[in-house]
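Why do we bother with holo predictions? Because pocket geometry can differ from the apo form. Keep that in mind while you read this record for (2R)-2,3-dihydroxypropanoic acid.
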Amino acid sequence: MKRKIIAYNFELTEALEKLNEQFEVHVFDSINPKTDPVFKQVLKNVEGIVGLALPVDQELLDQAPNLKIVSNNSTGYNNLSIEEMTKRGVMGTNTPGVLEDTTADAIFGILLASARRIAELDHFVKSGNWKGHLTTAEYAIDVHHKTLGIIGMGKIGAAIAKRANLGFDMNILYHNRNRNLQAEEKYNANYCDLDTLLKESDFVCLMTPLTPETENLMGEREFKLMKKSAIFVNGSRGRTVNETALIQALRNKEIHGAALDVYQIEPIKLDNPLLQFPNVVTTPHIGSSTYETELKMAELAVENLLAGLTGKRPKNLINP
Ligand code: DGY
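The structure, written out:
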């Protein structure tokens, strides 16, 4: 009998084929893992899970006594209760090292789109409002030579700094748990405390992983510290931002605008006030979502899963 694994929100068939040869693969897409009866039934005998953003908590682990590994198809792993998994001998892995440039392209892209009002002016053209010379009502703001503050200078943060400094002559400020000397040397990034970054940046780009320390990192106080002319960009996780505070800051014009790829609840609800602001650019968590990069991530996730299920140490093991 083949060993059972679950593929959760993991649809790339090229990567899945490799698993189908060896395992009984149960594919689940967009189900509620807390309530779906078939999912709960399969969990009882499953040895491995590969996929995206499955909340692996005590409740799930209790239902999966044979589970050996959860291979996350993402760099972020805030969905995994690593401490609880470690206690039970369940491995957790992620997919770093293959998506940094792609994610930096996307996040710098929404920064540009927000500053230059690309989505808004696309709508302006397509809805027939372009009737003559542009007026100040259509003007945007410059990106080049401005100051970009990056909160979270890991590999993706550094790839954004590269684009900003080498391509757009931007000054880079950053705040991080540790100094990133490479980014300082290569992209003229200057380390500073969070408040200084917020006060001095024209663009504030949040790129931290979601941890207990970074949850709600951006709240009322932080938005008030930002320049009124500044744009806030979130490429990390929605829960790093207090959305109510962001909405208030936008309503009170405490900041100029925002570019968001991540939200407290994904998919974002249509009645979320953030969707009402013309000066907020929104994308559906597209950071790594290009065909090329998603395939590389999926292959790495499969490699990690196979290692864990064949008694080898997975390349991207997260457990301490
Ligand atoms: C990541 O890899 O963490 C991306 O945000 C996709 O979830």
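The first helix runs from residue 13 to 22.
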